[in-house]
Amino acid sequence: MTDHPPLLLIEDTPSLQMVYRSVLTNAGYTVRSASTAAEGMEAFLKSGATVVLLDLMLPDRDGLDLMQEMLSLRPEATVIVITANGSINKAVEAMRAGAHEFLVKPFDETRFLGAVENALAGRNIPRRAPGTAPAKPAPLIPAPTGAFVGSSDTMARIHAKIRSVARSMATVFITGESGTGKELCALAVHDYSPRSTGPFIALNCGAIPQDLLESEVFGHVKGSFTGAVSDKPGAAAAADGGTLFLDEICEMAPALQTKLLRFLQTSTVQPVGATRPRKVNVRIVCATNQDPLDAVRRGRFREDLYYRLYVVPIHMPPLRERGDDVIEIAEAALSRFAREEGRHFDGLSPDTAALFRRLPWPGNVRQLLNVIRHVVVMNEGGPVTPDMLPDIVADEPGLAPPPALLSPTFPEPAMDALIGKPLAEIERLVIEATLRRFDGSVPKAARVLELAPSTLYRKIDGWKD
């Protein structure tokens, strides 16, 4: 049991309610669930919930009306609305009426838990009335367990850059390894901008099938293709008045890159099957865990689009390059997770702190948070000692980057073996060697090679042709 009110989940589809509840419970949250608006309001009043996950399409009442009633009764509550593709307009309306964020089905577990963590991180931030202008930006306040905890010089420079660029309309291009907090960085740019009262729409270009990506970005009209049973505005239109975050931008198909460039030049969107374009007012923030200029050199990313997007670059450093930030993040996460679980821990032991400084953390902040969550869930309290850590931290060789692949210079014999081979063959040799080192695990190999898993799968499939 935690010493905080439970999360309240209101979802009328039994299978989805079960999935969402399971994800939240496995992440350590206490959850109350309801299937109707009436049940949801009753649970809201009885449980004291201050974070609500609300499906807008309920059988007995409009979800937007329910949200407005909840916020009138408990203005400090934070509501994350959940909507199907066909009701994005209503979700945008909910954002303007005071919702914290919205998720468009289907969404992945990382996005789901990230929205909840962001809502909880903002619990101590005074709520603005919907439609009012944001207060004068204060110094960026780190989220309790996010990538922005840390007092290293590197993070101080990132804080300053975010505060500076947030006030403009300039496109922000965020780079960094997986797990370094690129989406948190994008959210910070949005939250400290004059657009903070508008929607923040995140789209992972690497997680959506290429044949559906155009519809996801620009929308479609009913009947424009098989399966288009209703009009869909698309992410660009849904972000009107706010920020559109395009994650894994280098995974975007070349044909769609052309349309994105036209969108940036004209600020108009034309849904699939539509005859007329629509003007929108959107600020673009994009991110990638690859080297975008290298993607340009290899012909995978348009050069003109690169220069259009790469206006203000922000590089999120890997955790291993942030010095004692790893200890600050771990201590902050330990304090928060312990409060949620109703337990008391006495910080990190000296041995644990020393170990954390030595580890390479290939999964970066996300991996560190998972380790601390494991410690809190599996132990009753006291100082965090190395024996409390999950076995993977100390035992799995995959945590250490392969020295022959990642060192600044290859050993001479290895280099001699590569000289004279075509670049495509060298790439394949390196990928195959990395996969062998990680026992065929594509996600682990992709993390070390700083590629999206979808990119690695595509390369492997191409070798079979």
Identify the notable features of this structure and list them briefly.
465 residues, alpha/beta, Rossmann fold, Helicase, Ruva Protein, domain 3, 4 domains, five-stranded parallel beta sheet, 21 helices, 46% helix, globular
Set out the fold topology.
Elements: E1 7-10, H1 14-26, E2 31-34, H2 37-47, E3 51-55, H3 63-73, E4 78-83, H4 88-96, E5 101-104, H5 109-121, H6 153-166, E6 172-175, H7 182-191, E7 200-204, H8 210-218, H9 235-238, E8 243-247, H10 254-266, E9 268-269, E10 278-279, E11 283-288, H11 292-297, H12 303-309, E12 312-315, H13 325-341, E13 344-348, H14 350-358, H15 364-378, E14 381-384, H16 391-395, H17 403-406, H18 412-418, H19 423-437, H20 442-449, H21 453-464
Parallel strand pairs: 1-2, 1-3, 3-4, 4-5, 6-11, 6-12, 7-8, 8-11, 13-14
Antiparallel strand pairs: 9-10
Helix pairs in contact: 6-7, 13-15, 19-20, 20-21
Derived from helix and strand composition plus strand pairing, the structural class reads alpha/beta
Which topology of the largest domain does CATH recognise? Rossmann fold
State the strand order across the main sheet: 2-1-3-4-5
Rg from Cα: 23 Å
Assigned CATH class of the largest domain? Alpha Beta
For the report, how would you describe the main beta sheet?
5 strands, parallel
How many E strands? 14
* Full CATH superfamily name of the largest domain: P-loop containing nucleotide triphosphate hydrolases
So what's the overall shape? globular
